[in-house]
Fold:
Amino acid sequence: NAGVMQNPRHLVRRRGQEARLRCSPMKGHSHVYWYRQLPEEGLKFMVYLQKENIIDESGMPKERFSAEFPKEGPSILRIQQVVRGDSAAYFCASSPEQYTDTQYFGPGTRLTVL
Amino acid sequence: AQTVTQSQPEMSVQEAETVTLSCTYDTSESDYYLFWYKQPPSRQMILVIRQEAYKQQNATENRFSVNFQKAAKSFSLKISDSQLGDAAMYFCAYRSPSGQGGSEKLVFGKGTKLTVNP
Structure:
């Protein structure tokens, strides 16, 4: 059973460009969570999605950030007009339908904004 | 809001010895989950151990065990017979129970960097 997949692993963008991060959950998992890790910090929750629904976006910045988890395909975290402060590692986690207490993490995407 | 505190930014241990990493948390909930995750230099977040608050018995996974003190809101991780591969950042995390109006999100501490000396 393949684990949580994230791509790209490394992404470099210039200020003002868009960053698009992808997450494919583990097979059979329908819950996806996005977290951000700044240097020397723990992970901070951003958003929780189920298929076609945003359940909790309390950790998402109000502007420039959006997330989706369509019926088909991976979950996407989109950052528009990136700034240097967006440089961080972005982790996706997933959990199965019936047992949502444990989250399994992907390898992360390291975003660098020049 | 729940908070998680890891008071030891760095710890070190000799290979084959035992080390304990501390974690305290603040919550008004009576039921919840607690986790320890390991983050090696590869940056992958790896689940080490989990504990349900309603269970009095401390969780164990091979060389890893926890000391869960609910009244004190303490959740320490003990690593026995430390190995070089245990060197990593260790994060303590809290999660509210599902389906009771609580958030599904994990709340993480800032981490403890563990060094294992040969």
User: Anything to note?
Assistant: The interface with chain B takes residues 31, 33, 35, 40-45, 48, 55-56, 58-59, 89, 91, 93, 95, 100-105, 107-108, 110 of chain A (CB under 8 Å). The CA atoms of residues 16 and 82 of chain A lie 5 Å apart. Chain A has a mean pLDDT of 92. The first strand of chain A starts at residue 5 and ends at 7.
